[in-house]
Structures are given as C-alpha cells and as structure tokens.
Amino acid sequence: MLKKDRWRLAIVIVVVVAALLSVFPLDGKINLGLDLKGGAHIVLQAKPTSGSALTDDSIERLLAVLRNRIDQYGVAEPVIQREGRDRVIVDLPGVEDPEAALELIGKTALLEFRKVLGATPAMPPGPERQNYASDDEFQAAQKRWNDAKVEIETYKSELEKQVGIAGGDIVAKDEEGRYFLLGPSLVSGKHLVDAKTQFDNLGRAVVTLEFNSEGAKLFEQATAENVGKQISIVLDGNVVSAPVVQERISGGNAQISGRFSTAEAQRLAIMLRAGALPVPVDVLENRSVGPSLGADSINAGLKAGLIGTLLVLGFMLLYYRTLGIAADVALTVCLLLVFAGLISLKATLTLPGIAGIILTIGMAVDGNILIYERIIEEAKLGKTPTAAIDAGFKKALTTILDANITTLIAAGVLYYFGSGPIRGFAVTLSIGILASVFSAIVVTRVLLQVLMGGSKSPFLVNRS
Q1: Which helix (H) or strand (E) holds 327?
Q2: Belongs to which family (predicted)?
C-alpha cells in the first residue's frame, strides 16, 4: 500500500471511530420533528389596530419576532409560516406545555415605564363563610367588601375621566385589583439591550433590564424627576409593579419584580429580549399533537429503509462480487455518517427526512457503480489492478462531483425557501450527499486497496 493510501486509511479509521462514538447509543440523540414526536400546533390571527395596520411588512416583522422568541425558548426545528393574509401557523415539536408556549408567543410584550398620577386601593379578597363564627358576621363582611368594591369602581371612574386632561394617558390595572392613572411613557422596551432572569436576596425570581445609551439617559432623567413618587412598570397594558423611586438611578439598569415563578420570569425575559409583537394576535387554534402517528411513521420508515438497504447490498454483491463487498461496507459507513451528521448538527428528523435517508441509500452506491465501471474498462485494456483503480477513480471523479453538486444545490434551494419538514428533508439529503461522496471516493478506494493487497488478482474484471 502506497504512503498516500495509508493516509487515506488513517483518515477513514478516525472518521468511522468518531462517528461510532457520536452515534452509539442512539436513543435520544436525534431530535424528532412534530410529525414524529408530537408537540404543539398553534394557529394565530393578526389583528389591525388604530396604530398598526395589517401590511405585508407587519406580518413579516411578526414572523421575525416569533422566530426570535421561539429560538430562545429552545424548541428544535419549529415551523413558523404564514397562511393567507393574516394568519400564522406555529408547530413546536416536543413541547409538553402548550399553554406556556402560547403565553410566550402570544403576548405582545410591550414594556413601558410610566409615572403614576393616581391609584385606587387594592381590592380586598372576598369573604368566605368558614372564616366567620355566624351568618351575621359573614353578611356584615360581605357588605363591607361590596362597599369597598363600589368605592374602588367609583374611584376608577374618576381616574378614567382624567385621561387626557391632567396629563393622564391611560388607566391600567395590576394583579391586586388596583387601578392606576398613568402618565405618558418615560422609557419603553425599544430602549432595551438585554433582559435576564436573576434572583433577589429573598430567592424570588426577578427580571433585570439593561438599557441602551438613550434608554439609560431617559431612565436616569425619569428617576431623578420622580424621587419619592411612584413609577409603574407596565407590560401589555397591565401594571407589573409600581415602586416608589428612592433616588436617581444611573447606569441604565432596572429590575422587574412580581409574583411570578422562575419559569414565568424566564419567559418574560425572552419576550422582552425578542421585542414586542408589531401587531396583536388572536389564538384561533391551540392543540397538542400526539406522537402515535410518529411511532407508526418511524416503524414504516425503518422497515422501508431496511428493505431498501438489503436490496441494494444484495444487488452489489451479486453483480460486482468482490467489488460489491467494498461498496456494501462503504454504504454502511455512509449511513453511519448520516446519523452522526444529524446528531452533530442537532438537526431534526422529520417524516420527509426519513424519506431523504431512504433516498440516500438508493443513491449512495451510484458513485461506486460509476467508479467500478471505469475500473473494469481500464482492467480490460490490460492495466494492472493498481493502475486500473487509479485511472478508474480519476475518470469517475468529475462525473461524481458534477452529479452530487447539482443535487446539493437543489437541496440548498429547498432549505432556503422551505420550512419545517421541507427543511428537514433538505438537511438530511445534504448530509447524505456529502457522506456518499466521501464514502465513494475515500472509503471505497481504501477498501479496494486492502482487498487487493498488492496482488495482480483478476477479480476486477470477473463479474460472472
């Protein structure tokens, strides 16, 4: 074996060993798409408002914000596509909590800091009979609660009358039932640079905010002008909190604290980082997709792949005999590299992706056939096995590259313009093309050199 062939053998051994280590054990290493694993299927409809009309640009910006949020949420290969003029379909493979995902993608996440011009008291919790010794005491508590409710509603009406008069801009409500008359926005989410989930001294989840230079100046100015007064943190028209400013805050950092869990704080941070939705959306459909169809599809795909592989292996052995052994081993290495590539790229396997693997099986030996026919032609001209192999590979290389590069270009177009399962097919096909070319040009050549062992055996021309 020549020195360059030894280098090829070393490369093949390293690649195969690395692929084996990345693939086995296979369980749980390959991400499955919605059609195979199940998940959440959500249909959203965009709504026009007085300040934001529905245009192609607003829908495209809506898609971009949704993709940004979902990418940060950690969903593998989501499908986010436009349907018609104002609808968006979102498929989230492997999502076990559709409601949490819906909260993430459906909220507008419009963040504002506003001065508090007036506020009602908090609405007390309603009385419960078991907390009182007699019916008279309970009825008296019920009357006090009703009086408080009427008083708060009256105060709310007075606040609403001041909107647009005394600098009031909106009336918003918080989780405790308080209503706030709020002034114009002092700082908004458009000034945000980053939002992170952290914990305060009591171990409660909070969201820390970092503003850009313009936002930092506005926030410092707002806190300086409102020392001893309340500034509310408003999200989607609801007051999250309304702390009293103790001193001027410089540096462009703020904190949102509220009654939310760690998971809710993380989702809020994601929404703030990704930005507000350009238009509000309604949820038309939100359902979970079970993996039962996926299990049947996987079994059918495995069966089809196994039958296809056995037929290809059998054909190569019957037609090319000894040469067929090298082709079959190269095909096995090709499949190993396909799965290793899917795992390494963290790609998602979909039902069309399984079709791509089966297609790869059928196409993987195409390069071997081209090479073998050239080798046989050279051997019939009287060349030695070594010379015939060398000439066969050189003459077949251009054809192999031309055929596979054109297919790779088609796969790239599918990936760029497609989405979801179409992209899964394109990724699987691309990995299969690269693996088959490597197997045909490098692995097969090394195997032929090993099988030949430097002898002048006539096996190269003996197919009968």
Answers
A1: helix 322-344
A2: Belongs to the SecD/SecF family. SecD subfamily.
pLDDT tier at 28, thresholds 50, 70, 90: low
Nearest to 108 by CA among 219, 216, 189: 189
pLDDT band, residue 409 (cuts 50/70/90): very high
- Edge-to-edge order in the sheet of strand 79-83: 79-83, 87-93, 39-46, 281-289
Which fold would CATH assign to domain 3-33+291-461? Multidrug efflux transporter AcrB transmembrane fold (1.20.1640)
Q: In terms of pTM, does the model score above 0.85?
A: no
Cα–Cα distances (Å) from 103 to 34, 170, 263, in that order, read 20, 24, 11
Reference 404, options 436, 365, 445, 358; nearest CA is 436
Architecture of domain 39-107: 2-Layer Sandwich (3.30)
Look at the domain 111-266 and name its fold: Gyrase A; domain 2 (3.30.1360)
Task: Give me the percent of the chain exceeding a pLDDT of 90.
Answer: 9
pLDDT tens track for 278-288: 788 888 888 77
d(CA 10, CA 452): 18
